[in-house]
Specification:
By secondary structure, this protein is α/β, with parallel strands linked by helices. The chain has 9 helices and 14 strands. The radius of gyration is 20 Å and the shape is globular.
């Protein structure tokens, strides 16, 4: 078997260390530095010739810096004769630019896929893409994981009865995700009618479904960016009579006024995973972080041994 090596970029070193802990492997030695003019430099500090290399690097903010660092890392391993290079991208930036929704605009998600492929990656491992069709943007294999098992386990431990749960989709794009959680957690389904006023502003008009009176609302999304949508939806849910509101998302981007909006909202708790590191200024009592390190570690082990990835979810019947 090819020897397994795991390396980390600067974006989320703690996650890489946690993955190595579950696999009982040392984190690979690599030097990542910046030149005075801002250009990035990479040097692999150990032999990787003929090795199976996994590069952990979410392209989270600062997106452009982390994306460029990932490309430089891939090129370094390609030129160092690694046998197989897998880009492990827990959070894939630019994923919302996945189509031409008006004239004369780019499809940046496709551009990023082309860059990663051309840099020399043989495979991509990612989690909860904003749009599933991004898998097809790559000309190399893409393993798409879901954080639903980790999130559902958390809510199972709360021991809520099915009669008191209402699963809420914050917009029409998350309906399929919400239905998946209803199948695993039980409860009723509700959908928030979201209208986009501009690229930065959304409004929440109505709620379809329920009832909410005295119940616990569980709201699911793939990411929380400015938090405007979920906070607006939470206010509607509160007005409908929900006694608690719990929000869960795989990726906690938390940009702009997100933290302030969450603190001012009726949301009881916000669950995110460690796909993106949570800086100290974003660590508030309402926000809880669940780890995806065991899930990524299991996927890496299966890829290395040429085993099925989809069976991780079919075995637990948790994917959504």
């Amino acid at each position: 078997m090819r020897e397994l090596k795991i390396f980390s970029g600067a974006a989320n070193r703690q996650l890489a260390e946690d993955i190595c802990g579950f696999l009982h492997l040392p984190l690979g030695q690599i030097s990542l530095t910046d030149f005075p003019d801002g250009e990035k430099h990479c040097k692999i500090e150990e032999d990787v010739r003929g090795r199976d290399a996994y590069l952990i690097q979410p392209t989270c903010p600062p997106v452009n810096d982390n994306l460029m660092e990932l490309l430089i890392m891939i090129d370094s391993f390609k030129r160092a004769s690694a046998s197989r290079i897998t880009a492990v991208i827990p959070y894939f930036g630019y994923a919302r630019s996945d189509r031409k929704d008006e004239g004369r605009v780019p499809i940046t998600a496709k551009l990023c896929a082309n860059l990663i492929t051309r840099a020399g990656a043989d495979r991509v491992l990612t989690m909860d893409l904003h749009a599933a069709q991004i898998q097809g943007f790559f000309d190399i294999p893409v393993d798409h994981l879901y954080a639903a098992p980790v999130i559902n386990d958390h809510f199972h431990r709360m021991e809520l009865s099915e009669d008191e749960i209402v699963v809420v989709s914050p917009d029409e794009g998350s309906i399929k995700r919400a239905i998946g959680h209803v199948q695993r957690l039980g409860g009723k389904l509700a959908i928030v009618d979201k209208r986009r006023a501009s690229a930065m502003e959304t409004t929440q008009e109505h709620i379809i479904g329920g009832p909410f009176e005295g119940r616990v609302a569980l709201m699911f999304d793939d990411m929380i960016s400015t938090a405007g949508s979920i906070c607006g939806a939470a206010r509607l849910v509160q007005e409908a009579g929900a006694r608690e509101i719990h929000v869960a998302a795989t990726h906690g981007v938390f940009c702009g006024p997100a933290i302030e909006l969450i603190q001012q909202s009726p949301i009881t708790s916000v669950l995110v995973t460690d796909s993106i590191p949570l800086s100290e200024d974003k660590q508030i009592p309402q926000v809880q972080v669940l780890t995806i390190a065991p899930l990524l570690a299991e996927a890496i082990k299966r890829i290395h041994h040429d085993k099925s990835i989809s069976s991780i979810f079919s075995d637990s019947s948790q994917s959504s």
